[in-house]
Amino acid sequence: MNSIKIKPLKGIDLNDLYKEVKTENQDRIGCVVSFTGIVRKNTRGRITKELHWGLARDTEDKLRKIADDESNREGILNILICHNTDDLKAQEPMVYILVAAEHRKEGFKCLMNIIDRIKDEVHFDMIEKI
User: Fold this and answer.
1) How confident is the model at residue 129 (pLDDT cuts 50, 70, 90)?
2) Rounded Cα gap, residues 84 and 118, in angstroms
């Protein structure tokens, strides 16, 4: 089971996402690894006040493809990606990614691949307001 959510993250409870990613294949899950991407305030000496997303219409399709591709890896059971649509201030969350896996090594490797792919394939149209 992969779940993709494109919506404002205000009010999202990470514990609810954790419960959701564990709903299928419960008997095989050995770990849930997670990543919360936040807007960095200081990037190489530049102070970011706000981040504006120019998410493409096919963002959900791209995220679903990433999740589907990565869930084909050995030991990966469920993936949940929840991506923010709001303009964000420094230190606010931009994405939650949770991976349920049989073993931690597989889970962390999958999580890193997802993060890298989102940065390469989805986050191409961000405007930082300094």
Assistant:
1) low
2) 13
Higher pLDDT pick, 70 / 130: 70
Size (the chain), residues: 130
pTM (2 d.p.): 0.90
CATH pick for 2-129 out of 3.30.70.930, 3.90.1170.40, 3.30.310.80, 3.40.630.30:
3.90.1170.40
The contacts of residue 98 (CB under 8 Å, 6+ apart) are: 17, 18, 21, 32, 33, 34, 35, 79, 80
Using DSSP, state whether 128 is helix, strand or coil.
strand
78 with 72: CB under 8 angstroms? Answer: no
The closest alpha carbon to 95, from 128, 127, 59, belongs to 59
